Amino acid sequence: MKFVVLVKQVPDTNEVEVDEETGTIIREGVPSVLNAFDEFALNVAVDLKEKIDKEVEIIALSMGPPQAEEALNKCLAIGADRAILLTDKIFAGADTWATAVTLGRALKKIGEVDLIFAGQEASDGNTAQVGPEVAAHQGISQLTYVTEIEDFDPEVGEIICRKEIDEGHLMVKGDMPLLLACMPRPDFEPKIPNIREIMKAKKKRKETWSYEDLGGDEEDYGLEGSESVVIKTYSPPPKGEGIKIDEEPERAVEKLLRFLDEEGIL
Amino acid sequence: MAETDLSDERGLTEEQKLFRESISDWGERNLPLERVIEMNREGHPFPEDIIQGLADLGVIMGPVPEEHGGMGLSWKDQSIIAEQIGYIDPSIATAAGFMAVETGWGFTINRYCNEEIREKYIKPAIRGEKFVGIATTEPKGGSDVAGFESTAEKDGDEWVLNGEKTFISGVEECQKIGGGYWVNVRTGPKIDEAPHKNMTAFFVPIDTDGLEPQEPYDDAGRGSLSTSGFVMNDVRVPEKYMLGEQGKGFYYTMEGFDNARIMIGASAVGVTRRILEEAADYIKERETFGRPLAKYEAIQFPFVERYTEMEASKLMVRKTAEMQDVRYDETGWGEKTGDPKTYKPTEIAKWISMIKYKVPHLAKDTADDAMHWLGAAGYSSEYVFETAWRGVMSYCVGAEGGANIQKIVIGRETLGKDYVPYK
User: Fold this and answer.
1) Distance (Å, whole) CA B251 – CA B197
2) Topology (CATH) of B132-249
3) Are residues B254 and B248 in contact, defined by beta-carbon separation less than 8 angstroms?
4) pLDDT tens digits, residue range A53-78?
5) What is the DSSP letter of B60?
6) Among candidates A52, A53, A71, A91, which has minimal Cα distance to A7?
7) Among B17, B29, B62, beta carbon nearest to A195
8) Equal CATH topology for B14-126 and B132-249
9) Which residues pair with B248 in a beta bridge?
10) How far apart, in whole angstroms, are the C-alpha atoms of residue B31 and residue B27?
11) pLDDT of B141 higher than 80
12) Which residues neighbour B69 within 8 Å (Cβ) at sequence distance 6 or greater?
């Protein structure tokens, strides 16, 4: 069986700085890490592999600049068996769709894949679009907001996942091939690779694929292949402290009603 | 973790960067500073989960060859590991102490022991199931390594050991999980003009009949790593438990010290960085007379001086670890390290002595400074500085070799043997 985990290297900061001219994220001088959502997705894949009595190859697939290799090294230490980095100047400046197209072409080249794992979103762009778009590009089903795999029958090709929704959770069944966009559980503790696993990862298969390897029209990739244009990127102003009513319930309701009345809201 | 980040990963391999990341993540989850402080205050709390955790993390005895249960890491790799363990454990006791003692001495025991000791003690110690350490100091002296009095006499295919060892790290923990010690004894007459001759090393399991552990000392620091000793009354060990060749114990012991000292020097770099980061958070935030403490030259200047010394020490430690890799490049022609054997062991020992003398003192002095910068807060156990100060002091006064002994080695190798002070 083959699992592919889509991963991204992101800046290790909540205060992302943006180049005002190009609208792209400034990466110089900012340390990079493996996107936490993707790390969770990889952990889910590794746990699943350990549970099933079947030979599984886990491939970590990423698109990014050459230094994104660091994130893939971590994936190999955590438990991926093979890593592929898609890197080429032609891929640069891609929006979510062009990214999904690039990843999709790489998936076609990899061959038959049973499960694709993705993080629900990346902590830099937070679009939550790439996973679903990859599924669309591949023409396969998808399950989003997956926090846990409840049951998996590799023979039948059926998987039951726990999916978070605003009202609680759903148990959803899907058929392979399938893409799972994974959302870390609040109690999730990522696996910490030990020194032995890190050294073992050094010997695992690592590849770099460029435009030449994926083929197709150049204009399908990168900035040219992007359907969207970033006009402006900005941080929304802070919401302010708000008003806190710290009283007994009856008195608090009274105060709240008075406030709403005074403000002309009611 | 401190907000201030003074780490610099440039020059590290991808694997070494991951070592640091894993150790930090593990420390944050299992050994936050609050726990380091608490365990050092408790006094010998036996951090079994920490010992097991360190083993699971793979940081004990990394340079032991793979076929002997280790990972065959370079000393440079292991020094990067030690630095980060020191960072998460500024007491050099709760985690760094165990890592340093077992790595330095366990690695050296493994070089000279037989297969039985390797299977029964070294491999389990790497897995965190046993403890191995060194017992060289005696009541009449520690720095004078060759001046010891314990003896061993041959009886058939056994040796009978008698004497007393004191100020030994980890005896209580070793009793609890099992293991044993490298013990130096005299297997021939003491030669006054060459007391290091006839010194022989044995591996002695802690539960051997006649070995009587003593009560632990109530030390100023290192609360979570016991220091005590044991008396040997007709302790019988088989001939095959002799480490290496008879009469060569002194040279093996110096080799073991070299390895352990690299671990201590590297750990102390990590301790210094942690102290500076924690202190930086405070002095940037805390205001007096309308300005943050960090804006006062009386605080900022010593801070940057310590930071500069820390970076210099880091480079020294890494260079020294690389030299040790050349020493253990068994091809002899630099096939592993790319450097033919260009250093004599005594020259490497000089560098090791320089880091052992310099870096623990730097860590101790930085902790001392930090307590001054923070005032009453720094003096309290709310912060890690006093725990670090008390722990690191152990490595200044004597653990793995006192400072003045290091200076004698450095002097001997720079000015020449004619100027050795004690001759």
Assistant:
1) 10
2) Butyryl-CoA Dehydrogenase, subunit A; domain 2 (2.40.110)
3) no
4) 889 999 999 999 999 999 999 999 99
5) S
6) A71
7) B62
8) no
9) B199
10) 5
11) no
12) B61, B118, B122, B123, B126, B127
Residues in contact with B411: Cβ distance below 8 Å, sequence separation at least 6, in sequence order = B419, B420, B421
Fold of B14-126: Butyryl-Coa Dehydrogenase, subunit A; domain 1 (1.10.540)
**Is residue B207 pLDDT above 70, yes or no?**
yes
In this structure, the number of other CB atoms found within 10 A of the CB of residue A200 comes to 14
Please tell me the distance from the alpha carbon of residue A29 to that of residue A31, in angstroms, as a whole number: 6
What's the length of chain B?
A: 423
Looking at domain A2-236, its CATH architecture is 3-Layer(aba) Sandwich (3.40)
- Collect all residues of chain B within an 8 Å Cβ-Cβ radius of residue A197: 58
Task: Name the pLDDT band for B202 (thresholds 50, 70, 90).
Answer: very high
pLDDT at A132 over 70: yes
Quote the tokens at residue A194: 């030990």
Residues 53-92 of chain B whose Cβ lies under 8 A from any Cβ of chain A = 56-59, 62, 71, 73, 81
Q: Do B73 and A198 touch (CB under 8 A)?
A: no
DSSP string, A95-149: -HHHHHHHHHHHHHHH---SEEEEES--TTT----HHHHHHHHHT-EEEEEEEEE
B17 has a chain A CB within 8 A of its CB: yes
Residue B162: what are its φ and ψ, rounded to 5°?
A: -140, 145
Assign residue A93 a region: left if phi > 0, alpha if psi is -120 to 50, beta otherwise? left
Stronger pLDDT, B123 or A235, i.e. the higher one: B123
What token pair was written down for B120? Answer: 């029964």
Nearest residue on chain B to A193, alpha-carbon basis: B22
d(CA B6, CA B28): 17
| Radius of gyration for the alpha carbons in chain B, expressed in angstroms and rounded | 21
Spell out the domain ranges in chain B: 14-126, 132-249, 250-419
Q: What is the pLDDT of residues A88-104, one digit of tens each?
A: 999 998 899 999 999 99
Of A189, A196, A202, the CB nearest to B58: A196
Strand (E) or helix (H) holding A37? helix A36-51
For B250, left (φ over 0), alpha (ψ -120 to 50), or beta? alpha
Residue with token string 């799972």: A180
- Give the best residue of A32, A192, A202 to mutate against chain B (max B CB count within 10 A): A192
Structural domain boundaries in chain A: 2-236
Residue in B closest to A31 by C-alpha: B9
Q: Which residues of B320-343 are buried (b: 16+ CB within 10 A; e: fewer)?
A: bbbbbbbbebeeeeeeebeeeeeb
Domain B250-419 belongs to what topology? Butyryl-CoA Dehydrogenase, subunit A; domain 3 (1.20.140)
DSSP annotation of A35: -
pLDDT tens digits along B276-322? 999 999 999 999 999 999 999 999 999 999 999 999 999 999 999 99
ipTM of the complex, rounded to two decimals = 0.90
Measure in Å the smallest separation between the Cα of B57 and chain A Cα atoms.
5
Q: Are strands A57-63 and A2-7 parallel, antiparallel or unpaired?
A: parallel
Inform me whether the pLDDT recorded for B90 exceeds 60: yes
Structural tokens at position B193: 């003009």
pLDDT of residue B22: 97
